[in-house]
Structures are given as structure tokens and as C-alpha cells.
Write a structure and sequence with these properties.
Layout lengths: L3 H10 L6 H16 L4 H21 L4 H21 L1 H6 L9
Helix pairs in contact: 2-3, 3-4
């Protein structure tokens, strides 16, 4: 399938349309790893790397502010949810200062 929006976006970013399926599969695999509870942390790290690449491509293409910042917002939501869910992870990244709670 060649969705016109994808074709246009890839053209603007300078990415060959032939890479669309591979990029989509990579995102699905990272998301699937993130959905499995035992591998949630690994999935969050992989998705953060994926979205870091998305930010780099947007910066390289001199895109507008929102398309550039949107992957950062999604990564922050993923990590925010992970920090709220996992008490063990909060010991590494405390939500407050150095106070003991």
C-alpha cells in the first residue's frame, strides 16, 4: 500500500518510500516489546531511541516546531507513565528532591 500522506511525508523528509515498511515494522516491534510487562523498560528505551531518530530526521529536514517536538512529547508520556507505574524505577529517578518518602 502506498498511502499518499506517507509518500508525501517521506518525500519532504528525503527518505525513500521503499523504507516505509521497514520503519513501520520497527515501530511495531518496539511497541510490542513495550506492551509486554516484563520487557516494558526495554521497550521504553527502544521507543525513546526510535523517537530520537524521528527528531533527528525532522531537524535535518528543517521541519516546523510541532513535528519536531511531537516525538519528544510521546517519549515523555511513555517515561512519565513508566515512572508512575514502577516504584523500583523511581529509586533511580526520584519524582521529588532528595527527600525520603
Amino acid at each position: 500500500m502506498k498511502i499518499q500522506t506517507v509518500v508525501d511525508s517521506f518525500g519532504q523528509l528525503g527518505i525513500p518510500v521503499s523504507q516505509a515498511a521497514g520503519i513501520g515494522v520497527l515501530l511495531l516491534l518496539c511497541t510490542a516489546i513495550c506492551v509486554i510487562p516484563r520487557s516494558l523498560l526495554l521497550g521504553a528505551v527502544l521507543l525513546t531511541g526510535y523517537f530520537g531518530g524521528a527528531i533527528a530526521i525532522q531537524v535535518r529536514a528543517q521541519a516546523a516546531l510541532f513535528p519536531t517536538v511531537f516525538p519528544l512529547i510521546i517519549s515523555a508520556l511513555i517515561w512519565g507513565g513508566l515512572l508512575l507505574r514502577d516504584a523500583q524505577l523511581r529509586t533511580f529517578f526520584p519524582l521529588r528532591g532528595s527527600e525520603n518518602t
